[in-house]
Design goal:
- By secondary structure, the chain is of the alpha+beta class.
- The chain has 9 helices and 30 strands.
- Helix 2 packs across helix 4.
């Protein structure tokens, strides 16, 4: 199984079992249009993390044909959401076993269904007409829809290696996770494709697609040898080059900064999914609508490539830790834009992230990491997890320095690769790496609590003493009742003269006297845009370059 992949260990923290890998053999029958079906056999390898006599898998729909445990028939039972397999004995802790499930089902008809309805859209789908007017097969398993076409442990904490053997009519190119190991033409006009990926991934990363009109680019290689390739529709070849042409230098940046790319390849497929990108490991899905504006959407490609470090390589342990996947990856993408396109472009990305997060609907801006119990991830599928999550990392970067933080992240991805992590893991690792930088207090206020600082800043200048008196008031009604604590940089301006100072903000009102060698005409708060905050400002006091003084949110002009 898995072509000789050696299993060196298992995660004892997993409930009941640690799923090690899945090997899927699936055959699609498209002889009846709009009634396409499949037959499948999935073999799962598991290690018991407690003594158990039955295995429960997530599985909905489909018709069950047969089940085996280590080669022996088993009589499984089902309810609406799960498949329970008796193991025929008590399996002790640490012992491995295999379960094989044979089943068949109908493909979900995706054409005409609103893809933004996550409860309806997903699983293994056939679209009779994509935007190019052609038939296409595609899976969408996020957040927990692998169970619609495979009996699996359908939670991101449980990472698996993957083998896929897929048989389709011969006119289709079939793509799945990992590297193509074999392709066989069959006598009945079908073709069988064998793919294997040997780096553990969450179940929502499992992907299968088939299409007859991709025009693949020539494979290109990063400095490390990592392979990058993209598969646009035949009418989007030029758009594909625009969207993906910078992926190799971005790959180089990610590897230099955050560690090796540990996957078989990075392929990007044009597909109908839900309007954005999906980080399926090694075979990223890019929605067909993105190709209408490829220049604007190349940042999405940077983001999805970054997931091969955060979210895929280092998984999340609970949906409450969703920001460790999406906020991390938005942060990596913003760093990539800055490195590749320059500082001004990077500032534009951070300003857009700020505006997006501040304008989340409602009067309460939730914490980046919601408290227990585990949430429905669709309730936090928003700019708090993505944009505010990215800003949280940007603030940590500014707190310890860009290079030390980059080095920390490189170590994080190395230490934690192949595992599921929590926000507390990140906090502990940061506190260990930077014990004198107040990490516990930062997480208490900026990660686990809601809202953010909203500042009103006033000043007066004493010319005789050469001193400016600055008062920083925290006017927010949410979040930390006593006010957030943070260092705030301010910049005094008079003509072409500037002077900077740092004020240690603590409590609802902080007043500081600062020696300034001139009478300032302007005062800019957080001039380098290091902090996630809002400023109530008026002309001449409080506004950052590139921001408007018309609202407390200071949206970019």
């Amino acid at each position: 199984m898995f072509l000789g992949q050696r299993i060196d260990g298992y995660d004892r923290a997993m409930p009941d079992v640690d799923a090690i890998g899945y090997d899927l053999d699936i055959t699609v029958d498209d002889s009846k249009s709009e009634r396409e079906t499949y037959r499948a056999e999935l073999t799962g390898a598991f290690v018991a993390t407690r003594a158990l006599d039955a295995l429960t898998l997530d599985f909905v729909g489909n018709d069950l044909d047969a089940v085996e445990v280590d080669g022996a028939p088993a009589r499984a039972s089902r309810d609406a959401a799960t498949l329970t397999v008796p193991l025929g004995r008590s399996v002790p802790v640490g012992e491995a076993f295999r379960v094989k499930v044979r089943y068949h089902g109908a493909l979900f008809q995706g054409t005409g269904v609103n893809p933004n309805n996550f409860n309806a859209y997903g699983g293994l789908m056939v679209l009779q007409r994509n935007r190019a007017g052609r038939k296409m097969y595609v899976s969408l398993d996020w957040p927990s829809k692998a169970r619609r076409w495979m009996p699996v442990r359908d939670h991101p904490r449980d990472g698996v290696i993957v083998g896929v053997r897929a048989t389709f009519p011969a006119q289709y190119t079939v793509i799945a996770n990992g590297r193509l190991e074999q392709r066989t033409d069959n006598a009945n006009g079908t073709r069988t494709w064998r793919y294997v990926s040997r780096t553990p991934m969450p179940a929502y990363d499992l992907h299968l697609a088939a299409y007859d009109d991709w025009t693949p680019s020539e494979p290109v290689r990063a400095m490390s040898g990592a392979e990058v390739q993209w598969y646009p529709y035949s009418n989007h070849v030029e758009a594909g080059q625009t969207m993906f042409g910078d992926l190799v230098p971005v790959m180089d940046f990610y590897e230099r900064s955050f560690g090796p790319f540990r996957w078989e390849r990075a392929a990007f497929l044009e597909e109908p999914i839900f309007g954005g990108g999906m980080e399926h490991a090694t075979v990223v899905s890019m929605d067909e609508t993105l190709f209408n504006s490829p220049t604007r959407n190349r940042q999405t490609a940077f983001h999805e490539l970054g997931h091969h470090w955060s979210g895929n390589l280092v998984r999340i342990a609970t949906w409450n830790d969703f920001w460790l996947s999406e906020g991390f990856t938005d942060y990596l993408a913003a760093r990539a834009v800055t490195a590749h396109d320059g500082a001004d472009a990077g500032r534009g990305v951070w300003r857009a992230f700020m505006l997006s997060a501040l304008n989340v609907s409602g009067t309460v801006h939730p914490p980046v990491r919601p408290p227990a119990p585990e949430v429905d991830v669709l309730t936090i599928f928003d700019s708090i997890s993505y944009r505010k999550g990215a800003w949280t990392l940007r603030m940590l970067e500014q707190q310890v320095g860009t290079q030390p933080f980059t080095d920390f992240l490189r170590g994080w991805f190395e230490r934690r690769r192949g595992t599921a992590v929590t926000t507390r893991d990140l906090e502990d690792d940061l506190d260990g790496a930077f014990p004198d930088r107040g990490m516990r207090a930062f997480f208490a206020q900026r990660v686990y609590r809601d809202h953010h600082p909203e500042l009103r800043v006033t000043r007066r200048y004493d010319a005789s003493a050469g001193m400016a008196e600055v008062t920083v008031e925290q006017v927010q009604t949410r979040g930390v009742s006593e006010g957030f604590t943070f260092p705030l940089e301010v910049m005094f301006i008079a003509g072409d003269r500037t002077h900077r100072a740092t004020i240690d903000v603590s409590g609802r009102a902080t007043t500081a006297r600062v020696a300034v060698p001139f009478d300032p005409s302007d005062l800019v708060i957080d001039p380098d845009e290091k902090l996630f905050l809002a400023v109530t400002c008026t002309a001449g006091s409080g506004c950052r370059a590139g921001y408007s003084c018309q609202t407390t949110l200071n949206p970019p002009v």
